[in-house]
Amino acid sequence: MTDAAPAGRVRWVVCALLFAATTINYVDRQVLGILAPDLQRSLHWSEVQYGYIVTAFQAAYALGLLLVGRLMDRFGSRLGYALAVAFWSVAAMAHALARGALGFGVARAALGLGEAGNFPVAIKTVAEWFPKRDRAFATGLLNSGTNVGAIVAPLVVPPLALAFGWQWAFVATGALGLVWLAFWLRAYHPPASHPRVSPAELAYIHRDAVESGGEIRWAQLLPHRQTWAVAVGKLLTDPVWWFYLYWLPKFLNEHYGLTLAKMGLPLVTVYLFSDAGSIAGGWLSSMLLRRAWSVNAARKTTLLVCAIAVTPIAFASRVTHLWAAVGLVGLAAAAHQGWSANMFTLASDMFPRRAVGSVVGIGGMAGAVGGMLVATATGYLLQLTGSYVPVFVAASSAYLIALLLVHGLAPSLQPVDLEGAA
């Protein structure tokens, strides 16, 4: 079989749909962070209460990932994605009904439960539509939707909130998912039954060795060190990204006096950096593979580059100029997204396609548990000290520590033989 990609491009249309869903996912989850400084003042939340509201999302997200990975493997990409997007869209709009910390906590929990479906089914879909050589790049593209969502949100949420009230910011952004749902149900079918997939493109999609076997049980996944490598990598680094989403607007407001009307450009700049980082991280490891590097060397070299690029974030709370802080956070956010694209791809590198959703669910659950603990701890830390220094210092070293543990658990990224293990 030739190494040249065939003329068919249906798989990239599917990737575009995944990108759009991920964008909407992050728009919906970031609305609260953007409005937090104003909501906290008007609704009289304490730092600890805000930490609990964020924790409610993380706890439900972790619970959802505990369940949703297997559900997505069982339901399939088309139905599973449709259910997840419909649920989280309604939950996002329900924020408009909240009137206090408890109401927001309930709405955030519902949102987290629904949004837990996004990445397990997206990474599963990539594994179904792309051979291994292209998965990191495709994952980087869909993962860049997190950054586009984070860019779109500060551009649209402040004008909506200032013009119509904060409630309509939640309603309008939540409705985007229902629009996407109509396109998904109309356009998506599995590769083998898709009417627009040519035989040449289908052969390219299935160029890797054919997999066999039935449903994967969690009991088959948890004993493997490769599963824990994905989980540990997410546990230590996902909380850093959650911190950017929920506390960066508050940090900029408290340290540089940015109001809701002026928050857009700094936040957009940070997430433009992170968008480029997501695509670059996926491109780098895929480029190394095309140059005959091993999967192990390509992935881990890229992870190391990203981990080193995060380290200057330690100084973000000590610089006095707004744009110096924005630059440091932007670099770290870009590195995180390059890291994240490759961490997701590790699951499809080491596990058969039908297990990818479950493995990503386990990893995402670990990241959400870490985010839940960090959110509560951050709320207490800020209420007691008012200092962001310890949080940024911890973020600067988290990725290097995570990479050491990932390498220790999966030194060669050896694929798992689940049938042999069973």
Structural summary, described in words:
- The structure is a single chain.
- The protein is an all-alpha fold and about 425 residues long.
- It has a single domain, classed as Growth Hormone, Chain: A (Up-down Bundle).
- Helices cover about 80% and strands about 0% of the residues.
- It is built from 16 helices and no strands.
- The model has no long low-confidence stretch (mean pLDDT about 90).
Bin the strand percentage. under 5%
Which overall shape is indicated by the principal axes computed on the Cα atoms?
globular
Predict the CATH topology.
Answer: Growth Hormone, Chain: A
Estimated helix fraction: over 70%
Low-confidence parts, pLDDT < 50 over ≥5 residues?
Answer: none
* CATH class membership: Mainly Alpha
Q: Give the CATH superfamily.
A: MFS general substrate transporter like domains
Q: Give the mean pLDDT.
A: 88
Tell me the domain tally. 1
Give, in order, the helices and strands. Answer: HHHHHHHHHHHHHHHH
TL;DR of this structure?
Helices cover 80% and strands 0% of the residues. The protein is mainly alpha-helical and 422 residues long. The longest helix is centred in the N-terminal third of the chain and has 34 residues, at 10-43.
Which descriptors apply to this entry?
single chain, 422 residues, mainly alpha, Growth Hormone, Chain: A, 80% helix
What is the fold's blueprint, element by element?
Layout: H1 10-43, H2 47-75, H3 77-94, H4 101-115, H5 118-129, H6 132-164, H7 166-187, H8 199-205, H9 218-221, H10 225-256, H11 264-290, H12 295-310, H13 322-350, H14 353-385, H15 389-409, H16 418-421
Helix pairs in contact: 1-3, 1-4, 1-5, 1-6, 1-7, 1-10, 2-3, 2-4, 2-14, 3-4, 3-5, 3-7, 5-6, 5-14, 6-7, 6-11, 6-13, 10-13, 10-14, 10-15, 11-12, 11-13, 12-13, 12-15
